[in-house]
Amino acid sequence: KVTPADRMLALPKQFFANLVEKANVRIAEGHDVINLGQGNPDQPTPPHIVSKLQEAAANPLYHKYPPFSGYSFLKEAVTKRYKADYNVELDPQTEVAILFGGKTGLVEISQCLLNPGDVCLVPDPGYPDYWSGVALAGAEMFFMPLKEEHAFLPNLHAVDDETANKAKLMFMNYPNNPTGATADASFYEEVVAFARKHGIVAASDFAYGAIGYDNVRPVSFLQTPGAKEVGIEFYTLSKTYNMAGWRVGFALGNRDIISLINTIQDHYYCSLFGGIQEAAALALTGPQQCVLDLTARYEQRRDALFQELESIGWRAQKPSGSFFCWLPVPQGYTSESFADKLLQEANVVVAPGNGFGVHGEGYVRLGLLADEVRLREAVQRIGKLGLF
Ligand code: PLP
């Protein structure tokens, strides 16, 4: 009999797997299911990036092991993107780590920084991978509630001094999954001051950095004076260029932390396939119209969806970034019982908010990951249940 190590038992349950399973049962029964529960972009990668991979795959250099921490040209490409988009200067050799998607870095940073018993501040609701890293490190989580009345930003003043002084790491994520909120420069200034005061490393998850609405470009944490002294930012091509399957991400910023992340990666991996690195570099330095088109498409979808929501009387706040809508559940339901009802009676999959933390209770998350027609249809089906 195999006995897993304790750390395996500490890992949170993968609730997306559960969601997919339930939806698949409905599909197997022959129902026309509209799946808005996951975070997988529905559009293909722009063709110029795909062509570059096809061409690069023939390069025999890439058939060998790549350099441990990845090719310099890719690190240079991401620093150029940050300079152009955010006017942030980064040294490609010491302030960039190439990751297998943002996800690996989000888990690894806890292993790099936390000892058993250390405290990590995590947003609630929040992306569950933060918990996984903390659990694997044997550390403890202090949940910072994200509330609608506080614009879904954590209230740093509400973290008591004892906890703040014990904390070694904090996560933040704007544009936010699941709430669709964005943060402005003043929030990040507060974070830098808080991190300095208590000796905390601030980790910004900027997975949805490119997706901001109403002509507002989301702010990068690294634009804040002093950010590099106290933290890093995780950046990924998954959402910006519809490249979720390619697994390309980065950690950027504080060189001591970057060095730790590169060290842990040396033990797990030997960097990404060179052809993928070359295509990723083109994504970052080539034409950016595809990014503008992608954001415009999500914005159109958002507006179509909210028009429909209004027509059925489901009132909610529009997201200002990311491709998620965070919608309150009607009275008499929990987030889970409501999501179940939508699946069973409307064949619409949404993610129950409690999967993102206790403060996610009372909400469901809906992804703008189907075309306008399907999004409108999903809401009309829900409207027929007569709950609003
Ligand atoms: N961070 C957030 C908030 C996400 O929603 C996701 C993916 O859904 C990731 C990070 C991971 O992205 P990647 O594909 O780069 O691993």
TrEMBL record:
Residues 32-382 form the Aminotransferase class I/classII large domain. Signal peptide: none annotated. Its cofactor is pyridoxal 5'-phosphate. Keywords: Aminotransferase, Transferase. GO terms for molecular function: transaminase activity. Pfam families: Aminotran_1_2 (PF00155). This is Pyridoxal phosphate-dependent aminotransferase. It comes from Paenibacillus chungangensis.
